[in-house]
Amino acid sequence: MKVQPDQKIPTTVLWDEAYLAYKFSESHPMAPKRLDMTARLAEDLGLFSLPQISIEAPYVASDEELAWVHEPEYVQAVRDASAGKFESMPERGLGTEDDPIFPALHEASARIGGGSLVAAEQILSEKSARAVNFAGGMHHAMPEKAAGFCVYNDAAMAIHRMLDAGVQRVVYIDIDAHHGDGVERMFWNEPRVLTISVHETGLSLFPGTGFANEIGGPDALGSAVNLALPPGTGDGAWLRAFHAIVPQLVRAFEPEIIVSQHGCDSHSQDPLTNLELSVDAQRQAAIDIGQLAKEVCENRWLSCGGGGYNPVAVVPRSWAHLIAVTADEPLPVTVETPERWRRYVKEAYGVEAPEKMGDDVDLWWRSWEVGYNPNDDVDRTIMATRKEVFPLYGLDPWFD
């Protein structure tokens, strides 16, 4: 969708309080309150009132739509679990510690899938250039089973719909702390889809996959790209790694649409991971992906949420920034969070909310072009990924 330089970028935000039904238990890390606080923060910041933003409600995806990327037998198993027909089916990932069964399991999960399908349709129909489904990003769900808090893979469903509509090249960029294994698996041998995952190494974090030599199936070598960063990687090193891999491959692939997953569990305060990013760096990554969408594919960009298990201090700020960036109106990190929002968080959840939209950090990073340090763990990780994939795109051909 071509947007004139002086024109606001039409953007769809998927939101409905029905999303809050995706609740495994009172104590489960995937807490729906993180979505509630994100939506309220975005509204109180005035983002939902921006003239270029339209709010659309998700719908519950049909079994036929779910079967685009999931086995029909698995969809039926989720339905049966929701109906209380069994307590556990480990071979389907249901009734496990990660994915407990609850009565609304099928409907709540399929609604997230429907949300990303609405987002995809808004872009395909050119009603919007961009869309964000911050409740989505369920990237671990596999064709045959649930995994890692994810039941149905909404991002993969959206990509499938795009391909079915005639889109020839889609780039999927995943910046969650965990490897985007489900989406990668579903398009492993599909040359029309390039999946790029920037994550903490599987040597220290679930799901234990996503290494540099995992590069796609025999008919699509180079279609999977994995940047497996060491534990403790902070803002500067993470951004250095991102900029040493992602922009070059996106430009070489020339996608028609970018789909991105913005799990914010890479934050230093996330209880389940070992990366050390700030909200500021997560915002910067969103800005960089948005710039690529502007440069390469006429602004067509579908962004999703994902992981994030600090529901007060991290998730709402990171995804409010994501909404603002997707709408091409990024918020300064120095902006104060609205008093109304902080009061709500205190009254509803009994905790103090952050007073500013950023973490007050220095985001400087060293460009890859200034030199490679073979003694640096992150640089070795970058080099491993570039050696595996770049020659397949005519980049760094001396590695071939």
Automatic annotation (TrEMBL):
Q: Which InterPro entries match?
A: AcuC, HDACs, His_deacetylse_dom, His_deacetylse_dom_sf, Ureohydrolase_dom_sf
One Pfam family hit = Hist_deacetyl
Its pathway is: Ketone degradation; acetoin degradation
- Give the top-rank taxon of the lineage listed in the UniProt record for this protein: Bacteria
The UniProt keywords, alphabetically, are: Acetoin catabolism
Q: Where is the Histone deacetylase domain?
A: 28-324
Family of the protein in this entry: Belongs to the histone deacetylase family.
Q: Which PANTHER family match?
A: HISTONE DEACETYLASE HDAC1 (PTHR10625:SF10), HISTONE DEACETYLASE HDAC1-RELATED (PTHR10625)
Q: What is this protein called?
A: Acetoin utilization protein AcuC
Q: Which organism is it from?
A: Micrococcoides hystricis
